[in-house]
Specification:
Radius of gyration: 13 Å
Number of strands: 11
Number of helices: 0
Helix content: under 10%
Structural class: mainly beta
Shape: globular
Order of helices and strands: EEEEEEEEEEE
Largest sheet: 7 strands, mixed
């Protein structure tokens, strides 16, 4: 069973918006940091945005001012609001969660992952 489940991906025109959601499929205790990664074909997985249990956020330079990460009222849920989407935002987006505090770029930092949701931005 995949511990995290993403939803909200799809096809959108450039300039449009999407909201991704991530929720646990089973009870997970002691989550601190939750993040969104993305991976485009032929490229490495990159950290897009993260949020700690204390509310500290961090964003990749390429999405600052366009994407917003937030945690939901339901425990261990996280959202990624994506506005002003560009074709270069096209990728599979993955949610991940870590037991340790801190937004770190290394994928090995995170303990739980989702299967990913496809986001395609047409020009």
């Amino acid at each position: 069973q995949v511990p995290l489940v993403e939803s909200g991906g799809g096809l959108v025109q450039a300039g449009g918006s999407l909201r991704l959601s991530c929720a646990p499929s089973t009870t997970i205790f002691s989550i601190n940091t939750m993040v969104w990664y993305r991976q485009a074909p032929g490229k490495q997985r990159e950290l897009v945005a993260g949020i700690t249990s204390g509310g500290t956020t961090n964003y990749a330079e390429s999405v600052k001012g366009r994407f917003t990460i937030s945690r939901g009222n339901v425990k261990n849920t996280v959202y990624l609001q994506m506005n002003s989407l560009k074709p270069e935002d096209t990728a599979v987006y993955y949610c991940a969660a870590g037991l340790r505090e801190g937004i770190i770029g290394a994928t090995s930092w995170y303990d739980y992952w989702g299967q990913g949701t496809q986001v395609t931005v047409s020009s």
